[in-house]
Amino acid sequence: MMFFKDPFFWALISMFGLVGAGAQVGSKKLGKSQLFGIIVVVLFDLGRVMLTLPFCPQPRFEIDGWNWVVGGIIFATGCVFCIPGIPGLYIKPFTGPDEKMNLKTTGFYGIVRNPIYLGEVIWFLGWAVMFRSIIGLALVPIWWIALLFIILIEETGLERELGQTYLEYKTKVRGRIIPGLPI
């Protein structure tokens, strides 16, 4: 059971969630399964949460207790982008693109095309700072790049399902995860 204390075991679990997410947003059949979507999100987030916690031995940085304040602010900011039901977030969670969906372009979606993915990157950064996890901080850019690959797959499906409407939206809102930047 020592592998449960290994942060790289939890990083692997998280990567399985990301691979599943790619399969879900890229497949019409899997994209309709809300249960599959919930499973991949749980795997992705559970792995990232667990690998930073104190029971996983790893190098940790010191910032004299400010880690809770700074990390908490970053974490809360990221959560704002991830909570369904707040103004600006009008999605059908845990599913892939389909022809019945309505493209939302207001609220956070008027600033960045993937506000939930932006929130995912930000909240994990805050979580890693809160628990002073050097491995967690090192993995933030890797999760961001992995989410970019998921976005590329998802955008193909959105272009297929929504056509010109989505192409016009992409022209208007350039940022995939970072507002204003087409990355």
Overview of the structural elements:
The protein is an all-alpha fold. The protein has one domain (2-172). It has helices spanning 7-26, 28-31, 34-52, 66-82, 115-130, 134-162, 164-172. The protein contains 7 helices and no strands.
Provide the β-strand percentage band: under 5%
Whole-number count of domains: 1
The strand count comes to 0
Q: What distance separates the N and C termini?
A: 39 Å
Order of helices and strands: HHHHHHH
Largest sheet: none
Count the DSSP helices: 7
| Helical/strand content category | mainly alpha
**Helix residue percentage:** 55-70%
Mean pLDDT: 84
Shape: globular
What radius of gyration results from the CA coordinates? Answer: 17 Å
Q: Which residues sit in consecutive blocks of at least 5 with pLDDT less than 50?
A: none
Q: Can I get a quick summary?
A:
The chain is mainly alpha-helical and 183 residues long. It is built from seven helices and no strands.
Give structural attributes.
single chain, 183 residues, mainly alpha
Topology readout:
Elements: H1 7-26, H2 28-31, H3 34-52, H4 66-82, H5 115-130, H6 134-162, H7 164-172
Helix pairs in contact: 1-3, 1-6, 4-5, 5-6
